Fold this sequence. Notes:
Elements: H1 11-20, H2 24-29, E1 34-35, E2 46-47, H3 68-72, H4 77-100, H5 136-151, E3 163-167, E4 181-182, H6 186-193, H7 195-202, E5 208-211, E6 215-216, E7 219-220, H8 225-235, E8 241-243, H9 251-256, H10 262-271, H11 285-290, H12 296-312, H13 335-348, E9 350-354, E10 367-371, H14 379-382, H15 395-402, E11 407-411, H16 432-441, E12 444-450, H17 480-488, E13 494-499, H18 507-512, E14 515-518, H19 526-534, H20 570-573, E15 591-601, E16 604-613, E17 619-629, E18 640-649, E19 654-661, E20 668-669, E21 675-676, E22 681-687, H21 693-699, E23 704-709
Parallel strand pairs: 3-5, 4-6, 5-8, 10-11, 10-12, 12-13, 13-14
Antiparallel strand pairs: 1-2, 6-7, 9-14, 15-16, 16-19, 17-18, 17-22, 20-21, 22-23
Amino acid sequence: MEKYQDQSLGFEERAADLVSRMTLEEKISQTVFTAAAIDRLGVPAYNYWNEALHGVARAGVATMFPQAVGMAASFDEGLLKQAGGIISQEGRAKYNTNSKYNDRGIYKGLTFWSPNVNIFRDPRWGRGHETYGEDPYLTSRLGVGFIKGIQGDHPKYLKAAACAKHFAVHSGPEALRHEFNAVVSEKELRETYLPAFKACVQEAKAEAVMGAYNRTNDEPCCGSEKLLVRILRDEWGFNGHVTSDCWAIKDFHEFHRVTHTAVESAALAMNKGCDLNCGHLFLLLNQAVSEGLITEETITKSVTRLIITRMRLGLFDNPEDVPFSSISYLENDTPESSAFAEEVSRRSLVLLKNDGILPLKREDVKTVAVIGPNAGSINALIGNYYGTASRYITVLDGIREAAPDARILYAEGCHLYKETDSNLELIPGDRMAEAIEAAKMADVAVAALGLDETLEGEEGDASNAFAAGDKRDLRFPGLQGKLLKAITETGTPVILVNITGSSMDLREADASCKAIVQAFYPGARGGRAIGSLLFGDYSPSGKLPVTFYRTGEELPGITDYSMRSGQGRTYRFMKNEPLYPFAYGLSYTSFEYSDIKAVREGENVIVTAKVKNTGRIKGNESSLLFVSHEDKSLDVPNWSLKGINNNEIMPGEIAELLFTLTKPDLSVFDEAGEEVYAPGKIDIYVGSGQPDSRSFALTGVEPLHIVLNV
């Protein structure tokens, strides 16, 4: 038995021994995502590229959860951990099955390139719905939960390997991502763009990190000395592997112009800490060695890291000794996982407006008009980076299920973005008449409008003819705005179900609709959650993980990465009043907060409070803690989320809340990006949402408040 085959030894020692037996050519063959087999050493071929953003993607049937931004609306780290656990269970089931038939192709491995923990700083960014929203703390908590679920808690082996992406300062524009230079101050780098990655690396122990396409402060992210060496490895102690985004390294010489040749680009990337190439330029490393651009020792370090990951996954050990190797195909897409995914869908929906029309009463509603291009759309359910669900339940299906005795009048109303549905029709609005008539004939109309991943998504994937995946503005595309206006003018009460992965301009809808539900992309069976919500089978509990601005015109340019430019970005820095604030969401029940206290315990502050369900039905409540420094000369955010407490509370029941604020939670960053524990008064707020005037105007409830002197 060779040392690398000895399962009693540590993975680092075994990996070092295995790599020491490889020739330079064999080592280089392991540095691309399509890692080659090395038969003489018993190394099987392996494909690193797999996706699991909200379910095992692109590899056949799997449980499909709501898109990431929808899961973020739950504000529930534990829920994300459970979802991650199901995803890795199904990933193992698929891997074990595919390996049995020697299928080691793309999307068949156990290295999942998820989650996306970039900050959704601009609602026009097409990939924003892949993220957990605009807040660094919320993104940190949900990223940590998801990674822990993906990787599992076995003391020796990873259930699957998670990858935090895209490192760092990456959130559009999609059309320029291969050449764009994101310029950001040290202060904003540390207070906004890096915290989630730090939590994923240091707390969740993410096995991998993916670099971004763009440059950050002139350095290409997949070859950045500052990001990959000084911060990620030296400062944070990361010991996993770094992968490039796909074909990002060729951007070095083709678009960023920081190198002259492909060989130089490959050498730069690996010299600066990128271990794996999603692409094939690293196959040129042999030439780079001969030209003196890189040493074999550097290549050896990268390959050793990659082999350690595969060893941690148990891929070099006896299957009977790896607990996850016994997971069978029957563990994929189970009834239990489908039921849990439906629960996540329910937790993802946010009730933005309710003039008292909701919940609908089945005995009173005889006819329902279900209208809109997203009403019967499967694409509206799934977001991007999706797998194949064994069953889809659209909004139309869900309302039919929820109101089996009602007459359902379905009308598409208009195309998602074109002015006609029929290619032969010359007059715009060829589906409008039947929608108006259906609304007139109904007791209530449900308008399912919005976008799908063909309009907001990744450059190259989205068929968006406007901005390579980004939105041009926050308005509904095509004739959707005219459709909504036409059906509201019939006098029939209208409920808008807004199916988008990002915030929209809902001013007209807010003025004319009786109720508005933000559904994001609610998952394969999300229509059932929507139908059940409308008819009161449960109380909505989702909260917005992003700000809904009144208009896109108030935003700085998408290429401006400063959070403080113009009228400011996100709830932490914006000066204008939003239409619907971050963390806002209505319920069918009511909650009352009381008894806030703050007590010092060493460097920490322990905050306690109580919340009572004062309504008539049970409800999930995400209780939130925000902090704000009164000394604004420190150039601090308006306030920042620093604590989340989730409870399901029965009517009349009181939940005890406990939050622990650490020294970093109470610190600020100076202009040099250094964390400073600044003395002075800090306001602490605990409640259902933000301590802003708009949240109070919408809910009539202010959070509890206490002042802490530090």
